[in-house]
Amino acid sequence: MLRAYGMKDVGRCRDINQDYIFISETPVGNLPNLFLVADGMGGHKAGDLASEYTVSRIREAVEKSMQNIPLQILKSAFHYANQRLLEKAQESESYMGMGTTLVAVTVVDNTAYVANVGDSRLYKVGKDIQQITTDHSLVEEMVRMGEISREQARNHPEKNIITRAIGVSGQAEPDYFDTNLEPGECLLLCSDGLSNMIEDSQIREILERRVDLKSGAQELVDTANRNGGRDNIAVVLVERDEVIK
């Protein structure tokens, strides 16, 4: 059995929240559950529209899908949402150029199936912390090419430049992952407003001492704000029961 909890916070430096989350512990179409975090980009209104609209189109595509393979369902949904957002952007000049990052996960039995575009992340947290997704960002490419270190990337001035997003081109090009989720382990989906403000090791410490998912999510958000809160913060936590029934 899965438990999940999510929350958003505008942070300390923004006037509007462009992050959007979705949580369903119950089936959505042929998926047994579905969890999403999107971080919108664009003008004053376009960013929050992009993230909410994309999440709605993902849900719509998953609900209608006749496929049974989780990653195939997510792949089709990402492409559908990308096309719909491109079309939406044509409706108003103020929408031009809007887009959103997106990370999605569904847990089937003891396997988490993950898809992502952009730099919203999915971590698996247990005795240690593992970033499952790979950021689609300029600084991540620089790290992979050996041009800068992982530590230098954390505070790089071009850290917010995204190389892939929903709604910016005809092909969304998600990456796909799967990972075992053992009882007691926790999945964390988050926007970069969290991951830029808290070191991975501190995320693990916070979640290790959590009383429940709600308290863990609240402490993550509070810590990100104490550390500066420079962006909107979105957190979704998912865990399995300690005892498999």
Brief characterization of the structure:
The chain has 7 helices and 10 strands.
Q: What does this entry look like structurally?
A:
The protein is α+β, with helices and mostly antiparallel strands. The chain has one domain: 4-Layer Sandwich (Phosphatase 2c, domain 1). 32% of the residues lie in helices and 27% in strands. Strand 6 and strand 7 form a beta hairpin. Helix 1 packs across helix 2. The longest helix is centred in the N-terminal third of the chain and has 20 residues. The mean pLDDT is 92.
Count of beta strands = 10
Distance between the termini: 8 Å
Name of the top-level CATH class: Alpha Beta
Number of domains: 1
The CATH architecture can be given as: 4-Layer Sandwich
String of helices and strands: EEEHHEEEEHHEEHHHE
In percent, how much strand structure appears in the residues? 25-35%
Biggest sheet, open or closed, and with what strands and sense? 5 strands, antiparallel
Structural class: alpha+beta
Overall 3D form = globular
